[in-house]
Specification:
The chain is built from 5 helices and no strands. It is mainly α.
Length: 139
């Protein structure tokens, strides 16, 4: 694999792995944490809209799917913040379980909706990921 292709996944992984740790320290309730996270994220996106904002795209049917995706993201963000701020589970349990569920849904959905190839590695990887999640989150 070309090492330069790893820049964005590594950056995303570091950022997505770090922000919940920082947010938990904020002590904000789930709704306030979700709101601040969303607003500040929006501020980060704004400079990238320059030249990339397509007003005509807003009128296309695909925007409905983007709205549904945004609703799911918003609900997921609130649920995630409730878990991060809660005392029921350790932050390591929360983050690992969410990631593992996300991986399984993405692999299954990629196959069902986009015809992604279901390789032997993926078939072995899903139960392995579930076992890893169990081992990493059990006490």
């Amino acid at each position: 694999m070309d090492i330069s292709k790893l820049m964005w996944p590594v950056t995303a992984g570091i950022c997505f792995g770090t922000w919940p740790l920082i947010m938990k320290s904020s002590g904000l309730n789930a709704i306030m944490a979700s709101f601040v996270l969303t607003v500040v994220s929006l501020l980060v996106y704004l400079p990238f809209l320059k030249g990339g904002f397509d007003q005509a795209a807003l009128l296309k049917a695909g925007v409905i799917l983007a709205v549904v995706a945004g609703l799911l993201n918003g609900i997921g963000t609130i649920a995630f913040q409730k878990m991060i701020g809660g005392k029921e589970m350790d932050i390591t349990q929360v983050v690992l379980l969410v990631i593992m569920i996300q991986i399984v849904i993405t692999v299954a959905g990629g196959r069902l909706f986009y015809g992604d190839v279901f390789t032997v590695k993926k078939v072995v990887g899903i139960p392995t990921a579930l076992i890893a999640a169990y081992l990493l989150t059990s006490k």
